[in-house]
Amino acid sequence: MRRARPGAPPRGTAERALTSVEAGADFDEARDRSTDRKTDTTTETREVREPREARAKEQPVSKLWHITLSVSGVESPLKEVRRGLEQLAHDHPFLLTSRYANDHAEIRYWEEARDLHDAAAVALRLWGEHRQTAKLPPWEIVGLEVIDRETYHQRIAEGYGPPPAAPVGVHPY
């Protein structure tokens, strides 16, 4: 047992000061999970569960975005362009269809993202990130269209926009 005056700091701590640190964003969720393990439903458990459900409603939900990426550049042999696009389709399984010529290509696929900005950012990185692994031509992105799922289906129903991405695969223009 330690002998000290009431309220006196422990020995060796006169120079140190305690500071408060905020808990991480998932602290409440971890506490809620441990509270939910209780078998009885107490008022405290219900009070904890209700704010958690409200937070879940506030968190952004991912949506599907239809991406059309157009690339263009110097002429490349058609066989190499096709092989590169087929490898890209293998590396990126959500690729719907690709159309190509010896100096340009169009890639269409679905991307899951929180919002349009995130979907566009991922789409703009797609060609560059896979250029080496898929041995794609050194073309530049010359066009990008990002539309949400509802708009895509509305366009198709009204007869506007590109036809549905069928047949799936890599095809010449």
Set down the secondary structure blueprint:
Blueprint: H1 27-36, H2 43-58, E1 63-72, H3 78-91, E2 95-100, E3 104-113, H4 116-130, E4 140-148, H5 149-158, E5 169-172
Parallel strand pairs: 2-5
Antiparallel strand pairs: 1-3, 1-4, 2-3
Helix pairs in contact: 1-2
What is the structure about, briefly put?
This protein is of the alpha+beta class.
Attribute tags:
38% helix, Alpha-Beta Plaits, alpha+beta, single chain, 5-stranded mixed sheet, 173 residues
CATH architecture descriptor text of the domain at 63-172: 2-Layer Sandwich
Shape: globular
Q: How far is the N terminus from the C terminus?
A: 86 Å
- The unreliable regions are 15-24, 38-42
Region (Disordered): 1-59
Biased composition (Basic and acidic residues): 28-59
Question: What do these coordinates show?
Answer:
The protein has a domain at 63-172: Alpha-Beta Plaits, CATH 3.30.70. The model is unreliable at 15-24 and 38-42 (pLDDT under 50). The radius of gyration is 28 Å and the shape is globular. Helix 1 packs across helix 2. The protein is built from five helices and five strands. Helices cover 38% and strands 23% of the residues. The longest helix is centred in the N-terminal third of the chain and has 16 residues, at 43-58. Strands 4-1-3-2-5 form a five-stranded mixed sheet. It has helices at 27-36, 43-58, 78-91, 116-130, 149-158, and strands at residues 63-72, 95-100, 104-113, 140-148, 169-172. It starts with 26 loop residues before the first helix and ends with a strand. The chain is of the alpha+beta class and 173 residues long.
